[in-house]
């Protein structure tokens, strides 16, 4: 099949439809005294999710309460349109939820208003009926060991996590519990079946070191992936004999022979993601009865790795949802495919994600609509009469008419490798001689962006800056060639890809070469500092938050949350060996080369960061301050971790960023 540019298709539609969408929500964006105020972009959303029950009779939603702003779980009976409050807490937000069966849900919690340094609670796990009855806490939220009081049945420990509903119509779910390890690694996990009414559990036997599980259409465990050191093994269970048979073994971190099992259809066909000799990861089918991979892929893109979410109905595969330049849903059932097309025609300027009842009468679907202009709108659509009812708006204060356009672009790196990137241009701006922020994603071995609304990008665009987000070599999602080209290239070819993106934008006439700043967090922060070191004539300033400043510290810092296995196998393969590559590490570590930085730098770190400990920032800051004329703004946020959790810190940081950018590359 072909893969058209989804973002481009939507960009070609009349963008004024975003206004019509907002009107459909009944909540046009509020007039803002200052439309570039970070509060408009980084405030907590008003609504975070909506999903229809398996029988199509109820819609569950997570939305903010009127007083505290805490996210609550609410259900709406579609026959009566009656709303029922299922869960609401003064000191916590409902983080996520899932349907267990037609009438029961599970959910967990998070405190979205609590700084990481004061974090006292885990997510827990709760279950409740859709009518509000039989609410039960199943998993403890307290980090401390459980102390049984009186005759109460102990809750499951806080390190227990929800995996998925069993899916056989019962009130049961699958959970996993860490068994041994410390804060940086888990030796093994135990898979259990949990009955959500009374809290009873039963262990599910699995091969040792199992960390990924795939279940059949009856909810029985059929395929597992085990991890041991740097090796992964996929095994399948024969339902008749209960015997586990190895299907594949491969390197855990960067092996082109890797198989990723994901879904089993009602006919016992296994769907998996694999490269199988190709550049991009495709969807393949595997015959479990004969242990045979199909001769050709089920679904493949020549440009993108495909790792779909599988949508099922009555145990059968109903559709696949995956990312190309934007999210796409490909339905298999003709009636749902036609419905998707009808809704896409009605809402042509958004990605429209349908929540379809797996075994309902098909009268209702829930639509989550979003785009680069629209953070998220939620609708209930009546199939028989085509009527649409508003459920909510994720961010009613955002005016779609003022949001920047985001598009995917491609440019050639200096060695000829094609680099994908996302470009966002301020609404109404002339596309020439714009000030530019190069926003570098973290990871770095991950995909940075999928088309849609982003608060950081839109905040920068609201201040008049074009934003370029390169998917530099080492990024995932675009094929093995781009990914492998980034191995052991920190500060080298990975860095050149960013500079080549700037030069491309300048050559297009889009960007003023004298007004370019580089910004990013984590690995992105590292790239900021190395950009100022390696390309001092290209960037006028840099914004680094929670950034890596010394590659050696990735291996040696005692405060890091990186596991021993990742340090021993993953980092050495992808970043380099601290002994064999010592000279290269020194040449490409910002702290070792701080004397080469002459541009203004904004540095921000979290006091309690365990991913990139504060030691990174402190060492670099000390080295930079020894240089004559150093221009440094230094911020340490107390009780914060790897990014800003506390609202006041987020607002403070982005206000500082806007002031820093305006002073150095002056959009206004």
UniProtKB/TrEMBL annotation:
GO terms for biological process: proteolysis. InterPro entries: 6-blade_b-propeller_TolB-like, AB_hydrolase_fold, Peptidase_S9_cat. Residues 1-31 form the signal peptide. Coiled coil: none annotated. It comes from the Bacteria. GO terms for molecular function: serine-type endopeptidase activity. Keywords: Hydrolase, Signal. Residues 454-666 form the Peptidase S9 prolyl oligopeptidase catalytic domain. This is Prolyl oligopeptidase family serine peptidase. It comes from Scleromatobacter humisilvae. The lineage of its organism: Bacteria, Pseudomonadati, Pseudomonadota, Betaproteobacteria, Burkholderiales.
């Amino acid at each position: 099949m072909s893969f058209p540019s989804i973002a481009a298709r939507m960009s070609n539609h009349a963008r004024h439809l975003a206004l019509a969408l907002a009107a459909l929500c009944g909540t046009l964006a509020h007039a803002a005294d200052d439309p570039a105020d970070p509060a408009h972009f980084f405030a907590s959303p008003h609504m975070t999710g909506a999903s229809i029950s398996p029988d199509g009779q109820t819609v569950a939603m997570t939305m903010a309460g009127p007083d505290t702003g805490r996210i609550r779980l609410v259900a709406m009976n579609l026959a009566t349109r009656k709303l029922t409050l299922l869960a609401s807490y003064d000191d916590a937000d409902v983080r996520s939820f899932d349907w267990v069966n037609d009438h029961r849900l599970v959910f967990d919690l998070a405190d979205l208003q609590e700084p990481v340094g004061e974090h006292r609670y885990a997510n827990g796990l709760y279950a409740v009926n859709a009518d509000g009855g039989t609410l039960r806490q199943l998993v403890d939220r307290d980090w401390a060991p459980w102390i049984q009081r009186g005759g109460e049945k102990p809750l499951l420990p806080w390190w227990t996590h929800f995996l998925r509903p069993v899916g056989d119509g019962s009130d049961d779910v699958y959970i996993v519990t860490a068994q041994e390890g410390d804060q940086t690694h888990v030796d093994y996990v135990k898979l259990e079946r949990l009955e959500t009414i009374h809290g009873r559990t039963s262990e599910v036997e699995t091969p040792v070191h199992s960390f990924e599980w795939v279940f059949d259409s009856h909810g029985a465990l059929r395929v597992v992936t085990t991890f041991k050191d740097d090796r992964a093994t996929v095994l399948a269970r024969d339902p008749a004999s209960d015997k586990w048979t190895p299907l594949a073994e491969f390197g855990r971190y960067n092996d082109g022979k890797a198989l990723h099992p994901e879904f089993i259809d009602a006919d016992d066909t296994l769907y998996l993601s694999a490269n199988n000799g190709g550049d991009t990861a495709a969807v393949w089918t595997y015959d479990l009865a004969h242990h045979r991979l199909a001769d050709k892929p089920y679904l493949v893109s020549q440009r993108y790795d495909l790792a779909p979410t599988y949508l099922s109905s009555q145990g059968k595969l109903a559709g696949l949802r995956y990312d190309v330049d934007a999210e796409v849903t490909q339905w298999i059932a003709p009636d749902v495919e036609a419905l998707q097309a009808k809704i896409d025609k009605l809402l042509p300027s958004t990605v429209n994600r349908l929540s379809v009842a797996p075994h309902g009468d098909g009268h209702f679907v829930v639509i989550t609509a979003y785009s680069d202009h629209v953070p998220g709108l939620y609708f209930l659509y009546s199939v028989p009469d085509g009527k649409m009812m508003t459920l909510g708006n994720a961010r009613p204060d955002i005016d779609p008419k003022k949001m920047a356009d985001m598009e995917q672009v491609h440019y050639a790196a200096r060695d000829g490798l094609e680099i994908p990137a996302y470009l966002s241009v301020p609404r109404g701006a002339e596309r020439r001689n714009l000030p530019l922020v190069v926003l570098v994603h973290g990871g770095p071995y991950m995909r940075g962006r999928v088309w849609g609304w982003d608060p950081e990008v839109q905040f920068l665009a609201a201040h008049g800056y074009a934003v370029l987000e390169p998917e530099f070599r080492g990024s995932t999602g675009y094929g093995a060639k781009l990914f492998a080209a980034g191995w052991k290239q920190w500060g080298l070819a990975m860095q050149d890809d960013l500079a080549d993106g700037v030069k491309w934008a300048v050559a297009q006439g889009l960007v003023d070469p004298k007004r370019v700043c580089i910004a990013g967090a984590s690995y992105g922060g590292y790239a900021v500092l190395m950009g100022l070191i390696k390309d001092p004539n290209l960037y006028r300033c840099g914004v680094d938050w929670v950034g890596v400043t010394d590659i050696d510290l990735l291996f040696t810092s005692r405060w890091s949350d990186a596991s021993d296995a990742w340090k021993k196998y993953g980092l050495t393969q992808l970043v380099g060996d601290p002994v064999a590559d010592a000279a290269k590490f020194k040449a490409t570590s910002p702290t070792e080369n701080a004397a080469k930085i002459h541009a203004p730098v904004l540095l921000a770190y979290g006091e309690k960061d365990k991913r990139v400990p504060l030691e990174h920032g402190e060492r670099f800051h000390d080295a930079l301050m020894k240089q004559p004329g150093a221009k440094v703004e230094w911020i340490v946020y107390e009780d914060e971790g790897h990014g800003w959790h506390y609202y006041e810190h987020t607002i403070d940081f982005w206000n500082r960023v806007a002031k820093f950018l305006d002073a150095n590359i002056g959009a206004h």
